[in-house]
Design goal:
The protein is built from 6 helices and no strands. It is mainly alpha-helical and 150 residues long. It has one domain. It starts with 7 loop residues before the first helix and ends in a 5-residue tail after the last helix. The model has no long low-confidence stretch (mean pLDDT 86).
Length: 150
């Protein structure tokens, strides 16, 4: 049986289609947020800092349903079987990336509430680790979806 790429019902109700669609928003928003934060710090522009904050906030909020659909895909496609290999690493790095994305947003939220205080010194290494985890998780997800196969 051949799948029709234009069949909307098949695309919306495929067992793991929602995760594949939803996951790109938090990835793009988070990476753009960190880039905007870097640009805001370098240029000392408040408007870039505001844009960075909103990108990081929406990334953290969008990551929650993306992670939930990933867990649902595991339950539906694999019927909750024990994970191993790339899928296990994808789940672990994705969970860690989600926690760090929420934490990075929390750091920015706290800084917005106290504009007279400087950002904490751990912000840059913290964001660097979060970016690395997001990239590793996305790379592993590419293997799982078949995009990274030759």
């Amino acid at each position: 049986m051949t799948l029709n790429p234009w069949d909307i019902r098949a695309a919306l109700f495929a067992r793991h289609a929602q995760h594949v669609v939803l996951i790109h928003f938090p990835i793009a928003l988070f990476l753009a947020g960190v880039a905007l934060d870097l640009a805001a710090t370098w240029t000392r522009r408040k408007d870039l800092a505001v844009a960075a904050y909103y990108n990081l906030a929406f990334a953290a909020l969008c990551a929650l349903p993306a992670a939930a659909t990933g867990l649902l895909a595991w339950q539906w496609d694999l019927e909750g079987r024990r994970l191993k290999g790339i899928l296990l690493f994808h789940l672990l790095s994705g969970g860690a990336a989600l926690v760090l994305m929420l934490a990075v947003w929390r750091v920015h939220l706290a800084a917005r509430r106290r504009p007279d205080q400087p950002f904490p010194a751990f912000r840059w290494p913290f964001q660097a680790v979060a970016v690395a985890l997001v990239m590793v998780t996305g790379h592993l997800g590419g293997f799982l979806s078949g995009v990274n196969h030759p």
